[in-house]
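Researcher: I need the complex structure. Ligand is NAP. Inputs:
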Amino acid sequence: MQMPVVEANGVKIPIIGLGTWELRGRTCARVVDAALRRGYRHIDTAEMYDNEREVGDGLRASGIDREEVFVTTKIWPAHFAPRELERAASSSLTRLRLTQVDLLLLHWPNPQVPLSETLDALSKVKRMGLARHIGVSNFTVALVEQAVKLAAEPLVCNQIEMHPLLDQSKVVAACRRHGLAVVAYSPIARGDAANEKMLARIGKAHGKTAAQVSLRFLVQQGVVVIPRTSRVERLAENLAIFDFELSSAEMNEIAGLAHPGGRIVDYTYCGSPQWD
Ligand SMILES: NC(=O)c1ccc[n+]([C@@H]2O[C@H](COP(=O)([O-])OP(=O)(O)OC[C@H]3O[C@@H](n4cnc5c(N)ncnc54)[C@H](OP(=O)(O)O)[C@@H]3O)[C@@H](O)[C@H]2O)c1
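Model: Output:
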């Protein structure tokens, strides 16, 4: 199967990627290798996940050409001062044993360092060839607006928490206004979506699981998803979402699951500003 892509500001991002947070050691290398052998072409890591070395091991073990795989990593906010950012990007590449990542993100906003300085450093790292593309993560509507004005190089995405239990329509609209792809992290709500009765019922009508409905709901909106699993058998399940379509009535019903307490990841983490 040819993996569908989302196009944004000059980049083509495979619409499904493998999330790797909390995958460590040999499990991480094994799951990355297995995912690539099963058709995944996009891997999401971060310096904070402490697994870039094993992601690199999995990549090489798979035997898939480097050019065929879209690799994202992220700079931790403690390293947003310009010199540190450059050093952190180089260290990530050393651990991954790659000369370039496809996408380098600011992991969370950091109000302690002026955004203009951090974006200048990120753009410089791109011009140096360490990253093909750059973007942000956990940016609010206001921060997306600021970032696109300040960035010397195009930003291609905002990676945010997104799943049926959380309404992210405002920040998604801001991303779309500026041509940024939306990458959904925790796309099955860390497993909670897999336990949702409504998603299970809709899935049953299509011969699919609740987790697959959660992923399809996002993909059908043109959102990139990066589900994580430590279980090789679930890799195929999370990829098998291109042979069915949710009706607009089903899409609306699923959107109705969103509620104010639906957010999983604590966004005040790292001193980030409140969401709009
Ligand atoms: N930018 C950021 O700040 C940020 C924050 C959070 C996450 N992320 C990225 O996004 C990725 C995904 O998010 P996440 O790891 O938070 O959550 P997630 O992908 O929504 O959920 C992962 C959990 O769901 C389970 N699961 C996976 N597939 C399943 C299936 N088909 N049926 C039932 N359960 C299933 C997994 O358990 P098993 O392992 O047992 O399958 C795991 O416990 C992360 O790994 C990371 O790469 C980024």
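Model: Summary of the prediction. DSSP finds ten helices and ten strands in the chain.
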